[in-house]
Amino acid sequence: MKLFNILFPMIISIRAAIASLIAEASTQNLEFKTCVVNPGGNSSIDDAPAIIDAFTQCGHNGKILFLNETYHVNTVLNTTGLKNCEVDLRGTLLILQSSAWVFGGDNINFQGHGYGTLNGSGQAWYTFIHGKSNYPGRPHAITIANTTNSVFEGIKFVQSQMWTMTVIHSKNVLLQDIYVNNAGNDGTTSSNTDGANTIFSDHITFKRWDITNGDDSIAFKANSTNIRVLDSTFHNGLGIAFGSIGQYKGEFNTIENIRVKNITCYNTLHGAYVKTWTGQQVGYPPNGGGGGLGFMKDILLSDFTLNNLRGIPFSISQCTTFSGVAGACNTSLFEIEDLTFENVAGTIGTNPIASLQCSAAAPCKNITLQNIDLALRNGTAASGYNCDAVFGSIGFNCTGFTCGTSSATGSC
Known about the structure:
- By secondary structure, this protein is mostly beta strands.
- Helices cover 12% and strands 50% of the residues.
- The chain has two domains: 33-211, Single-stranded right-handed beta-helix, Pectin lyase-like (Pectate Lyase C-like, 3 Solenoid); 215-412, Single-stranded right-handed beta-helix, Pectin lyase-like (Pectate Lyase C-like), CATH 2.160.20.
- The chain is built from three helices and 24 strands.
- It has a 24-stranded parallel sheet that branches.
- The longest helix has 30 residues, at 2-31.
- The relative contact order is 0.07.
- The model is unreliable at 6-12 and 21-30 (pLDDT under 50).
- Residues 1-27 form the signal peptide.
- InterPro entries: Glyco_hydro_28 (IPR000743), Pectin_lyas_fold (IPR012334), Pectin_lyase_fold/virulence (IPR011050).
């Protein structure tokens, strides 16, 4: 009887475990399936419904396969709420200028193999807006929303209509081996074609990005925390951006624990720059605003190689505007502290090395600029650190004052 009392619970436990394993295997075999998206074959056929249907059928415990062909996406794609989903993009999604893709879920593996492409057909927008930045109605190529524990790899983006990628309300996402080329045809300016932006997102990693564009290479906006940008190359844009932030009156936002390492820039305006709105609201978003609160701290930018930089390697402007009209440049209450820019080499077009226009109402604290080895195009050593309201300069001495004027790009 004692032996039975010992063995009986063990037998029940083993049987339950075996039943659980059988049920799990059965569920996996039954639920995991592949949906192949077949293109319509010409621009008059909108492939968006077929794409959405594939995600509806296989977006949970399944795989969506795009063939090595061209898909014409003529209407907005919304494929959110995915779970345990693989996306195999082997062809090109040709997205007309009036459409975009909202994408998200948990445990997603999105593979582009280095050639799977989202083509935004952005030239029509570039021509239409004539260089104007925040023109209403321009879509983002892809918005990664409410996404967790996911990987996006080997995807190409060509001529995005506006921002290429927006990562919002997301956490634990890896984005690596991504190629972006938003250059306009015949020298057309492709303004506001950011490579990527983070908003209300945490633990996001960008690795091995190659970006050619006409605006921020990668930007960290409101409530971006624990972000990494590694081993990436930027062409022609504005460089790494913090902000803009502080645009919405009374709102409290943060940018914290950012690490950017091993970056190569070619003909960008900056290596990195910070842009906050003033403490006075002037107009309304998207081109007006101001009066936002919050802080930015614990920032490390290291190992930058700058090639033929167009402007100032590192800039802080707390007088951002996109309308040409700004509040007083010394009124921002958004706090900037513990920011380091180090191990920087290369060639730049003009002095100074840094322009730090901080707000007198909330001075910048503990700014470190060290191990800077830069030369002008004529071979002479770069020099100069212009500062307003900087408390705690580490590794450099302020040599003058900034121009103190409003800016959208961190330049005078």
